[in-house]
């Protein structure tokens, strides 16, 4: 703080005020949002490319802010991470997604698998494995129906520690997928040692798959890499029939993207399941 008079302190200067204030406001709002139940999960179908049917979904968080309306996760996940709020928020996401999956299963809508994004801070949190185990037990969801999405940087940051955590998670029986695969710095040597189940091809490679031969080659390579490591492979950001066709021709196992459906609220997702919507 800058001293302006005897007992007067000017706490911010015009240069720093605008953005810092906006951040502070959002941070304050974020703290209240969990209590005030302003978060909800949307679900985006994951479609099996052999059967053409929905076999699972990714849970994606949304913030219904009282003044700003729907706030995208890109605008608040980083802040939640920095402030530590991601820990209770992430726990809420895991619990809500598992309860939803179980309730759709119980309604006879199929053995759905739900994918949940974990943040770096959640991943290295001491009691992660215990808290996931608790949620699964309380919801009665079969562990293999929960898939945790992690990024390459989370895994490669401290590989030995990551291997330890992954082994414990694998011990519970949950599935692990590597999100945004290809955008980080995975070492193939390490990839082989990690107990993971799924590679998720980043949407930046899928986008130009039918016009850019380099992207086409990258995607084809990731699919065959995954299969030779006995991993499943799913493509995200699939928006066109051409992209879908390429992925199917190259043996990709599953896909997710606007071509099939955007992420939608739970009731709309349930309607898709009841209709038996397929490719
Ligand atoms: P992500 O995990 O890579 O999620 C995929 C993003 O791509 C989602 O954006 C989704 O709506 C969008 N998407 C899906 N299909 C298409 C498509 O065909 N075309 C295009 N252009 N985009 C598509 P969203 O929901 O805004 O989420 C952004 C990011 O926020 C996520 O990226 C994830 O990193 C993070 N996030 C979302 N929910 C959570 C959460 O519950 N916890 C944590 N830690 N992070 C979350
Ligand atoms: Ca994801
Ligand atoms: Ca992704
Ligand atoms: Ca496994």
From TrEMBL:
<feature type="domain" description="EAL">
    <location>
        <begin position="23"/>
        <end position="277"/>
    </location>
</feature>
<protein>
    <submittedName>
        <fullName>EAL domain-containing protein</fullName>
    </submittedName>
</protein>
